[in-house]
Amino acid sequence: MARKGVRDLWKAKVEGKAVNSNLGAMASLVKKKYVGTILGVDPSLRGSGFAVVEFASGGRQTLLRSETLKQRAKVSMPQCLGNICEKMLHLLDTYEIDVVALEQTIYVQNYQTAQILGAARGAAIAAAAMRGKEVFEYPPLRVKQAVVGNGRASKEQVAKTVRTLLGHGALLELDESDAAAVAMTHAFTG
């Protein structure tokens, strides 16, 4: 039997199938459905997305809250970071959050952009740490694979799939749907 690559094993896990490991031993990657509330975060200095998603024992997912923290260009970077931290603390204090799931920084060619995105992530992570919440990070490719089934899906495809999975009638802003997708990724695969 041919060896399966990491992508094939990952695809099987997402689909809930038992897989043959490269060592030949049978390994079931199926796990119990996640039950709890996850705060998903798509961090960005000027437009961070937040989504609080509850996962019930029957497999039902409910979007409790979603929003995008938009910050104008005239707001200083330190103030933006403080606002991200403040928003995180507000959500963590308002809802019974079990874990926080963040989207990792994507590869960027501009060093300054990478630093800014890293700072925004740091503000969100610091707030979670202040409330003693465990933080899980997922790369965008994995998020798209887990939610849409295609690691190269567009933001619009992710938004449409999230809306369908949540049974949510209204369109979410792209940053909010990305945040919900990160929460779903943790619930589906974390």
TrEMBL record:
* Protein origin, superkingdom: Bacteria
Cofactor note text: Binds 2 Mg(2+) ion per subunit.
- Which Pfam families is this protein grouped with? RuvC
- UniProt key word Transferase: no
Q: Which Gene Ontology CC terms are recorded?
A: cytoplasm; Holliday junction resolvase complex
> Which residues constitute the catalytic centre?
D42, E103, D175
What GO molecular functions are on record for this protein? Answer: crossover junction DNA endonuclease activity; DNA binding; magnesium ion binding
Task: Kindly indicate where the leader peptide sits in this chain.
Answer: none
Q: What is its EC number?
A: 3.1.21.10
PROSITE patterns linked to this entry? RUVC (PS01321)
Keywords recorded for this protein, A-Z: Cytoplasm, DNA damage, DNA recombination, DNA repair, DNA-binding, Endonuclease, Hydrolase, Magnesium, Metal-binding, Nuclease
Q: Which residues bind Mg(2+) 2?
A: E103
Q: Which reaction does it catalyse?
A: Endonucleolytic cleavage at a junction such as a reciprocal single-stranded crossover between two homologous DNA duplexes (Holliday junction)
According to its UniProt record, where is this protein located? Cytoplasm
Q: Does the keyword Transferase apply?
A: no
InterPro entries, alphabetically?
RNaseH-like_sf, RNaseH_sf, X-over_junc_endoDNase_Mg_BS, X-over_junc_endoDNase_RuvC
Q: Which GO terms describe its biological process?
A: DNA recombination; DNA repair
CDD domains of this UniProt entry? RuvC
Q: What does the record give as cofactor?
A: Mg(2+)
Q: Which residues bind Mg(2+) 1?
A: D42, D175
**Enzyme type, top EC level:** hydrolase
UniProt subunit comment: Homodimer which binds Holliday junction (HJ) DNA. The HJ becomes 2-fold symmetrical on binding to RuvC with unstacked arms; it has a different conformation from HJ DNA in complex with RuvA. In the full resolvosome a probable DNA-RuvA(4)-RuvB(12)-RuvC(2) complex forms which resolves the HJ.
Extract the NCBIfam families matched here.
ruvC
Identify this protein by name: Crossover junction endodeoxyribonuclease RuvC
